[in-house]
Amino acid sequence: MVRSGRVTLTDVAKASGVSRATVSFVLNDDPRQTISTATRERVMAAAHELGYVPHGIARALREGASRIVVLSVDHGLEGNFSRSYILGLDEELAEHDHVLLVRHGRAAPENLQKVLDAIAPRAVLRLGEAYMHGHEPDDSDWEHGFAFNAGLQIGYLADHGHSHIAMAMPDYDFPLTEARLGYAREAARRLGLPPLERFVVPRPREAGRSAVAEALAAHPDVTALAAFDDDIALRSLTALRDLGRRVPDDVAVIGFDETEHGSLSTPALTTVHVDAKVLGRIAAREALGLDTAGLAPVPGRIVVRESA
Fold first, then answer.
1. pLDDT in tens, 232-273
2. At 21, is the secondary structure helix, strand, or coil?
3. Residue 266 to residues 162, 260, 273, 303, 306: CA-CA distances in angstroms?
4. Which residue, among 76, 69, 132, 68, has the nearest Cα to 106 in the 3D structure?
5. CB distance 16 to 43 below 8 Å
6. What are the C-alpha distances in Å from 88 to residues 130, 137, 187, 295?
7. 230-242 and 205-218 helices cross at what angle (nearest 10)?
8. How far is the C-alpha of 18 from the C-alpha of 24, rounded, in Å?
9. Confidence class for position 135, pLDDT limits 50, 70, 90
């Protein structure tokens, strides 16, 4: 079987017909788990066929002596989504007598490994890990997952008469940039819209104004900006105001991953709110090998304000 992107524990679980936790127990050869020989052989065969290779921090279960679970949050992923995810993860772990340790930013792999060696965590997780390695979205992704949430902006703008849309992007790359842009482009394709334009809105204010002016001059048909996040949306609003463009009359703007700052802008920012608390609870249960029945992701929603 030939696959694109890195194979994950979830892929092996689907192929072998067992839970993600069972796959991790088998691949980590956890002596505390009673798993039949037939199941072990099925998991190992699926892992071999798919070409699964363990990846340090991406391992969903790294069994140890402590009751600590480590979550790594890469630079650029801090926001409402990550805060709600951490809240759910922390609450669920606490209910099962475990403690959450969160590491933020651009930590060098060797520094993280020192932490892991010192505390021997029960599990090591990485926020958004599945989407950093060429994850192909399935139906659930488009129903309530990352792909669905990324497409909300485009669908909302299309519903309000915008067909020529540009993605306003940050002036730095982080692990989910390409996935986020790819899902937005696919959403536009599914809606029968022209391909999304793309441009960067950098700091400082003068640079952002120049970038927006150049983008609109190059693409005069664009009537709406779907911003990568609320920060980029607010940069775009400032640039448009500096350029004398009316929002939303001349150009509509919609953000993503709602922050309180959007409600304080003029005009107030329309954005996408994603509550990831239940995703954190699901991750906690999977890490501990517990049943996740009764927990389901909550689809994102549009927070309608004046900017779009």
1. 999 999 999 999 999 999 999 999 999 989 999 999 999 999
2. helix
3. 21, 13, 19, 15, 8
4. 76
5. yes
6. 19, 23, 29, 11
7. 80
8. 10
9. low
